[in-house]
Specification:
alpha+beta; Aminopeptidase; 121 residues; 4 strands; four-stranded antiparallel beta sheet; globular
């Protein structure tokens, strides 16, 4: 989806920014999805998950950077990585929380499966 007209030969990318200044006061609804923390993943393992979750969406950003640069991001102590798993324990998405900027958390969520979008999160 794009907010601009896009030629058939082009690919649109939509980036959304969210700012939350306080914790929500609502109860968290139940969900068949769960988060599983990835501790210190190797670049090859991360890329395998990245491909599995995002290939149908043409994700490529983390596939084209050198291993050393990717490792510097995904193995940084202030970056937390999670898989979003379905009820059978299969990864259907990814979540990255980047705390490297003091006082901020950059949330990078990658939903790969349409099933994830069908669940209210």
């Amino acid at each position: 989806m794009s907010y601009e007209d896009v030629f058939d030969r082009d690919l649109a990318a939509v980036v959304t920014f969210l700012e939350m200044r306080e914790s929500p006061k609502l109860d968290v609804p139940s969900s068949p999805l769960s988060l599983r923390r990835l501790e210190n993943p190797r670049p090859a393992d991360y890329r395998e998950l990245f491909r599995a979750v995002g290939s149908r969406w043409l994700w490529f950003s983390r596939l084209v950077i050198p291993d050393s640069e990717l490792a510097g991001i995904i193995q940084h102590p202030l970056v937390e990585l999670f898989t979003i798993d379905d009820g059978a324990g299969q990864p259907v998405g990814m979540l990255e929380l980047d705390f490297r900027e003091p006082g901020e958390c950059e949330r990078i969520e990658r939903r790969g499966s349409p099933a994830v979008d069908d669940v209210q999160t």
